[in-house]
Amino acid sequence: MAINLEIRLRRPNKIYYEGETISGVVHISSPTEIKHDGITLCMEGQVNLTISNKNVGIFEAMYNSVKPITLLNQFTDLAPSGKLPSGTTEVPFELPLICTKEPKVLYETYHGVFVNVTYLLKAEIKRSFLAKSVAKAQQFIIQYRPSQPPEKKTEVNFSISPETLQKTAKERISIPRFLITGLLDSTETCVTKPFTGSLTIHHTEVPIKSIEIQLVRVETCGCAEGYARDATEIQNIQIADGNVCPKVQIPIYMTFPRLFTCPTLITKNFKIEFEVNLVVVFGDDYLVTENFQIVLNRTA
């Protein structure tokens, strides 16, 4: 006997703000009558922290900091034990999105490598030992309410040359001569808006093979006893292919992927930060990288 169980939210995009009420129906369909021991709904919100393999040596010192952080944990009975008729049944529900435990704030949904912030609804049709219970989970998304953008953006000028690289004098001998200048419109930007700027190649002794922009997440899990900091690449966008013409302005334009980025978040147990790398690959495979720390927010 096939029982189909679904959680259908009233809001199609599944995006909610703290303080709102999440509502919908538990949709149940069966070709025959169903006898059950109750229908329940659980709402969970957690921050799950993971220590990478390279930091496994300090795992014991960080045991408390890598425990899941509970943001939401609400349980409700939707229906007492009884019977459901054949066909389709919809059971409505409403739950407030309020965090009553520390840190008393609902962080934005985020899917990282070592830090994950997730929110789930779990419905279950409880049945007797001989008839297996039926369960279904549905993820929803929490976002911060947009704030007012800063009145003025701070532009960032940069210049890359052998003299600006952090190299020893001996290593500089083998570095090709080049000069790259550019402008970032702002290092503080909204996650729903593009990261923009431009760069110009003034001269280079060795032809350029490629110019790329990398978005990197820096996740830190830790406490007073120790911490683990790991940087992983989210995306890589090539903005120039081959040896570009000198003194031609090359635009920088990058959108932030949904769920894999969130507003910069710093707490006592973990941090989620972001960086942008400008990577220039020369024809002899010599690679130059310039790093920029960026701050993400959510503005109107």
Descriptive key words:
300 residues; mainly beta; six-stranded mixed beta sheet; 1 helix; 21 strands; elongated
- Indicate the radius of gyration in whole angstroms: 26 Å
Strand content: over 45%
Helix content: under 10%
Order of helices and strands: EEEEEEEEEEEEHEEEEEEEEE
- Give average pLDDT, whole number: 89
Query: Judging from the principal axes of the Cα atoms, what is the shape?
Result: elongated
What is the tally of helical segments?
Answer: 1
**How many E-type strands?**
21
Class of secondary structure makeup: mainly beta
**Regarding quaternary structure, how should these chains be classified?**
single chain
Described by strand count, sense and barrel closure, the largest sheet is: 6 strands, mixed
Spans of at least 5 consecutive residues with low confidence: none
Structure description:
It comes from Aedes albopictus (Asian tiger mosquito). Belongs to the VPS26 family. This is Vacuolar protein. The chain has 300 residues and is an all-beta fold. The chain is 1% helix and 56% strand. The protein contains 1 helix and 21 strands. The strands form 5 sheets. Strands 2, 5, 6, 9, 10 and 11 form a 6-stranded mixed beta sheet that branches. Strands 14, 16, 17, 19, 20 and 21 form a 6-stranded mixed beta sheet that branches. It is elongated, with a radius of gyration of 26 Å. The two termini are 50 Å apart.
